[in-house]
Amino acid sequence: MSMTDFCHFLELLGYEARSLALKYFRSSLEVVTKSDETPVTIADRKIEERLRQMIASRFPSHTVVGEEAGGTISSGISWIIDPIDGTKSFVCGVPLFGTLVAVLRDRRPLLGMIEMPALHERWIGRGGYTTHNGEPCSVSQCKRLADARLCATDHRMFSGGGLDAFELLSQAVRITRFGTDSYGYALLASGHVDLVVEAELKIHDVMALIPVIEGAGGIVTTWAGGPITDDFGGNILAASSAELHADAMRMLMER
């Protein structure tokens, strides 16, 4: 199956996730708190269930790993699903939630999709190429921290020295915005944001983001500059340029 065929299938998954998410968005939902203290709704479960069905029907030999039903990444082709990234936004009626789907080959991200159902926006990244609603997109040319726009989901995801380092970085940039979840990474891929720095993330939170940002010309690593693997430790630094990445990484590691 070609990369183009995979991308077409990701589009189908995106439309299905959008339809299901909007069915439940801003409706009366029961919110359950999971053992890790994060919320989950019927929308999370229904979206993951449906996407799993679609993938299994088309690719019965592929492995599927999801936030809600779990699974284990294989050495062949694996699909990683986060049915609703930003469930807190979802249950509060805030439209900045998304569905993330990644395709991994031998445990490394090959393709990724960021679907924003309520905004009717979709980013798909594949080797050296990213589209936003079907049109090519690219990161900004920002190279200086003093000019940079920084996003993170919540300052409470940082702790100890990590919080101190983030606050120093936040003081060094031009603008800092919170509450973006995966949308911050999508905005980086389209050139509207220059840096995203986060912590305590899990594999389903990040794998889809990597092809999207790298395909748009950006850089995604751990805070220490290492690759994002299935045991990456939770810290992520995404930047629009090598210069910006190096300066941000230096500040984060000098904590």
UniProtKB/TrEMBL annotation:
<feature type="binding site">
    <location>
        <position position="67"/>
    </location>
    <ligand>
        <name>Mg(2+)</name>
    </ligand>
</feature>
<comment type="similarity">
    <text>Belongs to the inositol monophosphatase superfamily.</text>
</comment>
<feature type="binding site">
    <location>
        <position position="84"/>
    </location>
    <ligand>
        <name>Mg(2+)</name>
    </ligand>
</feature>
<keyword id="KW-0460">Magnesium</keyword>
<keyword id="KW-0378">Hydrolase</keyword>
<feature type="binding site">
    <location>
        <position position="85"/>
    </location>
    <ligand>
        <name>Mg(2+)</name>
    </ligand>
</feature>
<dbReference type="InterPro" id="IPR000760">
    <property type="entry name" value="Inositol_monophosphatase-like"/>
</dbReference>
<dbReference type="InterPro" id="IPR051090">
    <property type="entry name" value="Inositol_monoP_superfamily"/>
</dbReference>
<feature type="binding site">
    <location>
        <position position="205"/>
    </location>
    <ligand>
        <name>Mg(2+)</name>
    </ligand>
</feature>
<protein>
    <submittedName>
        <fullName>Histidinol-phosphatase</fullName>
        <ecNumber>3.1.3.15</ecNumber>
    </submittedName>
</protein>
<dbReference type="Pfam" id="PF00459">
    <property type="entry name" value="Inositol_P"/>
</dbReference>
<dbReference type="GO" id="GO:0000105">
    <property type="term" value="P:L-histidine biosynthetic process"/>
</dbReference>
<dbReference type="GO" id="GO:0004401">
    <property type="term" value="F:histidinol-phosphatase activity"/>
</dbReference>
<feature type="binding site">
    <location>
        <position position="82"/>
    </location>
    <ligand>
        <name>Mg(2+)</name>
    </ligand>
</feature>
<dbReference type="GO" id="GO:0046872">
    <property type="term" value="F:metal ion binding"/>
</dbReference>
<keyword id="KW-0479">Metal-binding</keyword>
